[in-house]
Amino acid sequence: MNILPPTLPLDHDRIVAAIGAAERRTSGEIRVLLSRQAAPEPVAAAQKQFDQLGMTQTAARNGVLLFLAPASRTFAIVGDTGVHEKCGEIFWRDVADAMSAHFKRGEFTEGLVQGIERTGTLLAAHFPRAPDDRNELPNDVAETD
Known about the structure:
Elements: H1 12-23, E1 29-35, H2 42-52, E2 63-69, E3 74-79, H3 81-104, H4 108-126, E4 141-144
Parallel strand pairs: 1-2, 1-4
Antiparallel strand pairs: 2-3
């Protein structure tokens, strides 16, 4: 989607807290990546980063990446095969639309938090947290050139 400004003010602590809260309900993994490079094809760029971040290595193939590329004013959401089997394209459109509504109002942190919360709810429904679950991927806001 093409709506982000060239620079993106984010409350990293609030985003990391939202990831942690969502992941306490699921064995799924959620990551946020901020790219400094333009991504005219954000889904392809997000998929490449998904692989490079090792997100295909989760035990249940239940990772989700929220990818933002402010230089091209785009973002994308990519889920692993286990997630796609459970949710389908309509779910991703719903999450993207919710995020876009906030982004258009300049509420970038809120848009990400909404996307994380909705993703966490889906993951919790299909991949509930087990007693022996461990955090397989970092919860930080990653950045790449």
